[in-house]
Amino acid sequence: MNPFAIITVVALITTSISIGLYGLRFSRGTSDFFMAARSMSTFANASAMSGEYLSAASFLGIAGLVMLYGIDMLWYPVGFTAGYLVLLLFIAAPLRRSGAYTLPDFAETRMESRTVRRLSSALVVIIGWLYLLPQMQAAGLTLNVMTGAPVASGGVVVALVVGLTVAAGGTRSISLVQSFQYWIKVGAIAIPTVLMLWAWTEQNSPRLSPARWSEPLSTFGGRQFPLYGNLSLVIATFLGTMGLPHVLVRFYAIRDGRAARRTTLLAISLISVFYLFPPVIGALGRFYSLDLGRHGGSDALVLLLPERVFPGAFGQLLGALVDAGAFAAFMATASGLVLSISGVLSQDLLQKRMGAVPGFRTGAALALLVPLALLPFIGQLHLADMVAMAFAVAASTFCPLLVLGIWWRRLSTAGAIAGLAVGGTTSVLAVLVALFIPTTGPLHAVLGQPAAWTVPLAFATMVVVSLATSDRVPGHAAITMGRLHTPDKFVV
Amino acid sequence: MAIASAFLSVLAVVPLLYWGSHWFRSAHVWSIPVIWLTIGVAVFPFIIALGWLHIRMAEWYEQQFIDLVEDV
Predict the structure, then answer these.
(1) How large is the average pLDDT for residues B3-22?
(2) What share of chain B is helix, strand, coil (3-state, %, to 5)?
(3) Where does the pLDDT of residue A270 fall: very low under 50, low under 70, confident under 90, or very high at 90 and above?
(4) Any chain B CB within 8 A of the CB of A483?
(5) What is the ipTM metric for this complex?
(6) C-alpha R_g of chain A
């Protein structure tokens, strides 16, 4: 029980909610409620983007994995960052110019088909739920470390806090909160890391052992099939980032295609700064070799290390800072996800029946309740591995749709449907099976990181079916694509 | 496209260098293995630089297009 931690976390939550309410004062009418007024600066937008993107997997997961399995795990931060680069190279500006608010919007504009829209909506909801699971698990873990409360309680806390902010706010106030939370996260990981590094050099910087830990593809720590795992992870993260629903909503809040590029580049820089720190904590964790079995394993490393390095009140203070950072991490990501899921649910399912704002609120509740109900049944998985599963599904579905939709005129409606269906079914089934089976053996390796085979499969299906059904290319494909690639100056 | 392939080829060179070069495998800077510094630190400025280059190129092409259209 850490008395400082309670104070910092309560302070973080109240500050977040009050920023949210402050932001709310500026949103007038329902249109502002759903979409940000495009008045946020590049810097604020980039902070919000990064704040939303850096989830519990980044804040807690990576350091733990590095400690357990060594250098191969560095592909997580590299992949998460490079995913944004791929997004910038191929889709940032055209996507913004499409004027789509969500992935289903884009699908419908480009493919001119309700079926593609419905498929995309279903996939957004599935990816969102997959991504929410680890956030809730992280919340439980953090609460457990702070207060000894059972891990299962975490989901409830996230559901309450996030539900409140989202139901009250909408994109505008959420963005303000998320950009605030980015800076909390960077501070909460940078300050303890630097101090702990200093403590380590005070002890004459002992070398980390054993040597095998720092060698690539060593299967150190019993992580099997490293080459396949790394390859699959790289594919999933590089190509999956562009297909994450909460990442794409951001682009709608940006003024034009040119600003979209600049904001993305700034976000990449902010994310990179953050990712310098978790591997250092992982390496230090190796040296101080904690007994982490008690608190949900390696994912608790970031939370426990400060108190281990600095015993006493100072360590507790640092620990409290880290706890607040972890809270910021899953709050920012979870609220972005809930916002996207509920946006899709309310637009496509609920709005006709119950009107815009109640539909949106019901959607938010649904978005939170389903993963909450699933949480007790999933197997023992690392946070970052669970997040990678959501990336794999996004890479096998929305990546082909976006890349081919933006760059290939001959993509046909039937091709898009077939590709989404094949990529979606294979990757979702693989990941669902992997969530519930024991985490060892070749079967889990292939199903738990399916991107290496599902992504090529989805691309191939989309291309082959499109070529076979060339009479079903959307009627306005040339016009739509012209609009996506025309400089902002000419778009009225 | 050119930037994407540059990125991928550099990424592919790192493991090859690792297997091929004894120096690369054993070198340390401030007692940290070089391979850790490569994919733990150096990739990030590299990614940012590529992104910056892409923006410059994309905007240059768009400016060319704008000039072309406005001349007519």
Answers:
(1) 60
(2) 85, 5, 10
(3) very high
(4) no
(5) 0.73
(6) 22
d(CA A237, CA A239): 6
Structural contact between residues A174 and A51, judged by C-beta atoms closer than 8 angstroms: no
Does residue A59 contact residue A253 with C-beta atoms inside 8 Å? no
A-chain CB neighbours of B44 within 8 Å are 81, 272-273, 275-276
Question: Which chain B residues are Cβ-neighbours of A231 within 8 angstroms?
Answer: none
Contact A207 B59 (CB under 8 A): no
The continuous run of DSSP H or E covering A223 comes out as none
Tokens standing for residue A306: 């400060």
Find the closest chain B residue to A260 by CA distance.
Answer: B55
**Dist. CA A461–CA B1, nearest whole Å:** 23
* Pairwise CA distance, residues A448 & A427, whole Å: 9
DSSP alpha helix (H) spans, A25-91: 29-34, 42-53, 56, 62-69, 75-90
What's the CA gap between A80 and A383, in Å, rounded?
Answer: 14
Query: Six-digit token pair at A96?
Result: 């913004």
Count how many residues are written for chain B. 72
Residue A1 pLDDT grade (very low, low, confident, very high; cuts 50, 70, 90): low
| Count of Cβ atoms closer than 10 Å to residue A443 Cβ | 13
Give B50's contacts in chain A (Cβ within 8 Å): 85
